[in-house]
Amino acid sequence: MQINRTYPVKTFTILCLCLFVASCANFKAYFNTYYNAKDYFDKAEKSRLENRGEVLPKVAIEHYKKVIEKSKVIIDDYPEFKLRKDALLLIVQSQFYLQEYKNAQGSLSLMKSEFGSTVTFETAFWSSMIKWKEGKVQPAINELSGLFDNKLSSNNKAKIYLSIAEIYFDQNMISLSMDNLVKAAELIREPNEKGQIYYRIADISFNENDFTRSLEAYKLVIKNSQSKKQIQEGHLKSVQIYRLQGNLELATKSIKNMLLDENYSSIHSDLELELAKLYLQQKMLVEAKNRLESIAQDYKNTIASAEAYYLLGQYAINDDWDLDAALKYFQMVPKENNQSLFIEPAKVRLKEINAYNSTQLKFTEWMERLEATDSTEVTQLTKEDEIALSKVLYSMAELEVFHFDRRDSGIKYLDKIIELSLKTLLLPKALYAKSFILEEAGEDSLAFELKKQIINEYSKTDYALAIMKVDNTFNTLDFNSDKNLVLAEKEWLDEPFLALNKYKEIIEIDTLSESSAKAAYFLAYQYDYKFVKVDSALKYYEWIIKHHENSEQSLFSHRRLLILNKVITDSTVISVN
User: pTM of the full predicted structure?
Assistant: First the structure.
């Protein structure tokens, strides 16, 4: 009998132990699932914040998806789980950053229906953020600002300021964005998060050339951030700012100290570059060139070596005028590192140098031809010759002055156009370019004389109009093609046949301005398509090609002439047959 009484007790005890173990296992399972989701969320947030302002990193996207997957297991399988609200909030935030706004709104509705007033801040905050992303910018800002009326923790206040700052930044309202970022940084106590915000402030300020605010923010990044990368960038940007502000001694001292410190070994190449730039700024050209050459050799295939080659190319142009050496340096930039920001500028430089070399060959050929004229020293040039020569001379001037900053050399080519009196559209253009260069150099009286010559001799050109728009002293013309074109366009709506006369008047008086090209093309088009008068259409298409050979209208006129002439030829053949 005793045995029979003991057996049920043992069974009951074992059963209880089994249930306890099972419940513990179950408890452990959903807690593990939640903390896995939270861990993925923290990793995603870290990646997103470090790449703020850029495309959401792929790793962050994958982590946010994992957050949603893990959190939904808790929501679906463990309805009584005490961190259910937190799991729902993780889903909302992940869906928002994945741009799944409708899903996020649905998750918010579920959260609000289950937890009511306990989630008032969360639902109001994320609803406002979704409104912003849906294009309702001002309502979003108003609703976020309205949350300050409630009793909030410092972290929630900071969260609102950060979001408002982000919205203003997205609207390119930089000043308001910065004000809200500063307010957020002042409220946050956690050092690393504070460092992240100051990094954002520093980065934006630097790009906006607000170097004073940027420098102060970078100092706070160094003080607060736990990211080694951000701290090192803070030091590097600080010395850049010292250089840009002209505090060269402090910049040099800071760089040399960090170059001696192994803790900064990962940015030594960048520090070496900054030192080279400091030498360039101080006209210590030999030291700068030596430093750049050592960077190119010591840090091969890096972002730094690519920039060093670019700067060496610039040095070869600006200080040595050695285009062959510059070509070699610029060609090395993409070879060193395909992520370099200097690849495109280097490509532009290569095109400029190749264009210069090609144009210079043409120039040399022309000069040899001009020097080989007959004993009367009268240069016989056809109209086509004048156009071709003026193009070569102006191209040389443009390259020298506006691409290589060699104004004295460039003016010589402009003078050659003026000296030869090449009667093409490039003559007034050359006069205008020279007046601009002289004015930039402070030689106002010489520039004024050239402008006066343009007004007197080429009054209907766009260059004369440009001068008059800037200086009323020259505004003496009664006829203005721009104004007449506007009047003709207005009259066309009511009195098209009268308007045609205005268009014709423009091209009778003005053969040079862009407005005359537009007027002629309008006439050609109307006679071609509206009135179907082929002879008149041909007349104006040919006028455009004759007087505005290099215009956009000329390109279309050439194409249309080919078609019309073919139609006329075919019609003639049919008539004969």
Answer: 0.64
